[in-house]
Amino acid sequence: MRLKSLEYVEIGDILGKPVYDDKCQLLLAKEVKLTLNYIERLKKANIQCIYIEDELSEGLEPTNVVSDELKIRSVSAVKTVFKDISERKGNNYNVKDINSIKNVVDEMMRVIYDNPETLYHMTELMGTDMYTYNHSAEVAVLSMLVAKRMKLSENFIQKIGVGAILHDIGKMQIPGEVLNKVNPLEKEEVKLVKEHVQFGYDMLKDNDFISPISRQIVLLHHEKLNGEGYPYHLSGDQIPIHVRIVTMCDIFNAISSNRAYKDRLNADEALELIRTEAVYELDRDIYYHLLKVVNIYPVGTLVQLSTGDVAIVIKENVDAQTRPVVQIIREKKRAEQLDLMDYLTVFITKTIEM
Ligand SMILES: [Fe+2]
Questions:
Q1: 136: domain range?
Q2: Phi, psi dihedral angles at 130 (to 5 degrees)
Q3: Looking at the domain assignment, is residue 61 inside a domain?
Q4: pLDDT of 187-215, one tens digit each?
Q5: Does some domain include residue 124?
Q6: How far away, in angstroms, is 221 Cα from ligand 1 center?
Q7: pLDDT digits (tens, 9 = 90+) for 143-169
Q8: Closest CA to 1 of 59, 47, 42
């Protein structure tokens, strides 16, 4: 199984994983053979990538930290809570909904602790309409993985998870036309978008069920180490560690996922962009922890090697992620196997699509 952008999908491709719509309802089941009609349906639902089964990726299974089932449940819980809290304007919480977020975070915790070797990579199961909810769930898992690598306590990690899930809840008060606008935002619109941190904090500030650590993440996740963030232009040590973790994971996930207005960067490109462009804004130590938990080349990824050959990743290397085991592709078939740990002069130059 491998991930394929919708623009490369062909009639006859077999779906490797189910695809869901914006209500978390099944849109197309696993093993469905794609017809023109189905492809149109995927486009209409704003699906950007799907998993397909083909000869090239036969027998390859990308391993996800969080199962598809838990992912769908998380996204659905996030959506319910976001809607509920924004409709009630911060008062009279539905405690059951807040508990559902905590339950999801607890489940994520269990998965992360039970599978310490599993690396994170994006799983595309839903369309961009679900972006905010999907992004929230992804940032939570990623932040918790980073926090665990930093050896923070379980109790602290749980609060980081809740804060990370809720970090953009204030966006519920910003019109969708502004959030998803393709053209550059007007000055007033930029100002409004920036207010999502305060909106979010206000929604949660009287909520005793949410720890001050989680609330701080909501309010401060756009602060930057060099003082150029918002809302308070905090700098350096003024920004707490739990906030820094979520800020890093938020940026990484946002630039490596699909949005209506831009093409997605692959994990390797996203990490490189953060390394080169955000050196003064983000915490360097956290960046190195992020590097260790992100699966840069998941099983099934097509890559170009420095030799010019195209290959497919067949086994990840947890200790040296840029050097997985690959299989060269010749005439659309998998040929010789190459463990990049044994061939140190050969390296991956980029991920490709076909
Ligand atoms: Fe945000």
A1: 68-293
A2: -95, 10
A3: no
A4: 999 999 999 999 999 988 888 888 999 99
A5: yes
A6: 6
A7: 999 999 999 999 999 999 999 999 999
A8: 59
